[in-house]
Design brief:
By secondary structure, the protein is α+β, with helices and mostly antiparallel strands. The chain has helices at 2-25, 98-145, 150-188, 244-247, 303-306; strands spanning 30-36, 38-54, 57-61, 66-68, 78-79, 84-90, 200-203, 208-213, 219-221, 226-231, 236-243, 255-259, 267-282, 288-298, 313-330, 335-337, 340-347, 350-361, 365-370, 377-380, 392-394. The protein starts with a helix and ends with a strand.
């Protein structure tokens, strides 16, 4: 009897130890994140930073070299076409030292002498021309009387033509010598004592506001130097530089949205132009990238856009493709299985692999063309522990 009890105890102990080992070695469920397959809108966009820019800006420059007086207008001040923006006093002729003045005066005397010589040559040429005409008249009478030949008449006509050309050349020489005299006299000209130069006014070319004041204090400027920039902030556009590989996918008229512009909600925009020439830009990582400027217009430049100024930073989303009702799955649930795309579907507490056909992709969602239904629940971010048939539980 005691032996029977001992055997029963041993058997119970073995069963208990086996059960404990089975429980210890039984695979536990893998904790996963789940997401449903849903239907809804999907849009493929190119997201890039942009800058606002006044469409038509005018750089007002100094018309003459001289001293610009202090510009009282400040950035943001509104001006109308024809309003005085700045005043410039033309530069007076510089004072000459004794040596330079003597050289300039000698140049004047030399030019005047050349002018006298040219005028004397002109008088000699005119006299020669008059003599040639008298000889031609006399030869014509003699030819008519049969005293001289036609060859003599041709020679006299040729002499008159040559003399007329000499008169023209002498007249041009006189004109050039006169210009040399004026130029030499201008070098020695100085402003009269106590005289003041006439002030030249610079006026606004269009209605708008002062965008930037390049010159503020009184200073010397050269002709063509920038003074202020004028533009109309109501005519605002957005410029964003895209990678050239992305720019070729954008077409004029494409819809875009403006985000993170400082106000509430998003603003609608339309692509107006893709510039034909690209440029090289170095990224923050030091990589040279080929970029292309894409210009957008506000779809409704209303009161919300009025708070934006020139050169403000915004975030642009240019829509390449969109649909209102597509079957979509989270992009981070997809993985490659050979040459095909697949997902893990939660089915009765276990993971089941399903091959799927996909369409358009974004960084968040992917269009599903086949292999899944709307009622399915997929595993997002499947790790190495997830495989076909493994037990799973929601994290």
């Amino acid at each position: 009897m005691s032996r029977l009890l001992t055997d029963r105890r041993l058997w119970l102990s073995a069963v208990g130890i086996g059960g404990l080992l089975a429980v210890a070695l039984w695979p536990s469920a893998v904790a996963v994140d789940l997401a449903p397959v849903s239907r809804g809108p999907l849009a493929v966009t190119i997201d890039e930073e942009g800058r606002t820019r006044v469409r038509d800006r005018f750089i007002v420059t100094a018309p003459v070299t001289g001293r610009v007086l202090r510009i009282e207008l400040e950035p943001g001040d509104r001006v109308k076409r024809g309003d005085v923006i700045a005043r410039v006093q033309p530069e007076a002729p510089p004072l000459l030292d004794a040596r330079t003045r003597a050289e300039a005066q000698a140049a004047v005397e030399s030019a005047e002498a050349s002018l006298g010589h040219a005028r004397a040559e002109e008088q000699r040429a005119r006299a020669a021309h008059a003599q040639a005409e008298r000889e031609l008249t006399r030869t014509r009478r003699l030819t008519a009387a049969g005293i001289t030949t036609a060859q003599d008449l041709d020679a006299r006509e040729s002499d008159v033509s040559l003399a007329a050309e000499a008169v023209n050349a002498a007249a041009f020489a006189v004109r050039a010598a006169s210009a040399d005299v004026d130029r030499a006299r201008a070098r020695v000209a100085t402003a009269a004592p106590g005289s003041t130069a006439t002030t030249v006014t610079v006026r606004a070319p269009v209605d708008g506001v002062i965008l930037q004041r390049v010159r503020e204090s009184e200073s010397i400027v050269r002709a063509g130097e920038s003074l202020v920039e004028v533009g109309d902030p109501r005519q605002m556009e957005i410029v964003t530089d895209l990678l050239s590989t992305d720019a070729v996918r954008v077409t004029p008229g494409a819809r875009a949205t403006i985000e993170q512009w400082g106000g509430e909600g998003t603003l609608e925009a339309v692509v107006r132009r893709i510039e034909p020439a690209g440029f090289t830009k170095v990224s923050a990582l030091g990589v040279e990238e080929q970029r292309v400027n894409v210009v957008l217009d506000f779809a409704d430049p209303g009161d919300e856009c009025a708070s934006l100024g020139d050169g403000y930073r915004v975030e642009t989303r240019i829509v390449l493709w969109e649909a209102a009702n597509v079957l979509k799955v989270p992009t981070n649930a997809l993985f490659r299985e050979g040459t095909r795309w697949a997902v893990f579907v939660a089915d009765g507490g276990r993971a089941r692999r399903r091959f799927v056909d996909i369409g358009h992709q974004t960084g968040v969602d992917t269009e599903v063309l086949g292999g899944l239904t709307e009622a399915a629940v997929v595993i997002v971010h499947p790790g190495d522990l997830v495989h076909d048939g493994v037990r799973i539980e929601r994290r």
